[in-house]
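From: lab user (bench 3)
To: helpdesk
Subject: output format question, protein + iron/sulfur cluster

Hello, I'm new to running complex predictions and I'm not sure whether the block I got back is the full result or only part of it. Here's what I submitted:
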Amino acid sequence: MLLPHSPLALKDLRTGTVNDPLRILVSGCIMGWPVTTDGTDAGLGGSLQALFALPNVVAVPFCPEDTGIGTPRGMPDIHGGDGFDVLDGRARVLDQHGNDLTEMMMYGASKMLEFALEQRVDVAVLTDMSAACGSQVISDGCRLVPDRTYQRGVGVATAMVLRAGIPVLSARDYKTLYAIMRRHNDALPHRDDLRDHHETDWYVSYFGDTSSST
Ligand code: SF4
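Helpdesk reply: Thanks, we reran it on our side. This is the complete output you should expect:
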C-alpha cells in the first residue's frame, strides 16, 4: 500500500533566508488560534514554537473549518473515504448529528488553498487526524463513538492543497520537521530519536509497517 501522500523530499524544499524566509502554511490551531470545534486551540498552540521562532522561517496560519463552517461547530468527519474522495464526490463530511457539512468543508478548503497560493507558501504543516487538515491519519467515520476507528488518509483541505502541488507535513512528523529546523539553524545538534507519524509505534501497530511501501 502507498502512504496517503509521498513523504516530503527535503532536497526539493528550498532553504529560507532572513530576507526570503521559508513560508509555511500552518493550521491555525497550531498557532494558538481558538478555532477548534469547541472554540479552543485544543492545547496545540505553541507546539511548533521553536520552528516559527527562527528568523528565516515564517508561519502563514489558516483554519479551513472556521472559514467554512464557523466556530464553535459540530465535529466534522469523513464518511466513505478520505479528503480526495470528498473532492471527487465519492465521500461526504458529516457531523456527529448527521448534518452534511460537505459543501462548507469544500468551501473552507478552497479558501485555504487560495490563501496559500496568494501567500506563496513553500510547504504546509497541518494538524493530523482532522477531517480538514489531516495528512497521514483521519477518523474512519464519526470519532465521537465508543469504538472510533481510524483510516490512513488525508483531510479535505489537505487533499486540495496537495493537488495544487504544495507538499504537506503532519505536525506529528517530528523527524522531518526537525530536519527542516536544522537546515535553518546550524547550531542544532543531530538527533536520531525522532520519527514521523507513520513511523510511530501507534501507527505501526494500528496500520502495520508501511515504511517500505512508499
Ligand atoms: S480545521 Fe485545521 S486549523 Fe482548523 S481547528 Fe481543525 S485542525 Fe485546526
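A quick orientation on your result: Residues 5 and 140 are 17 Å apart (CA to CA). Let us know if anything else is unclear.
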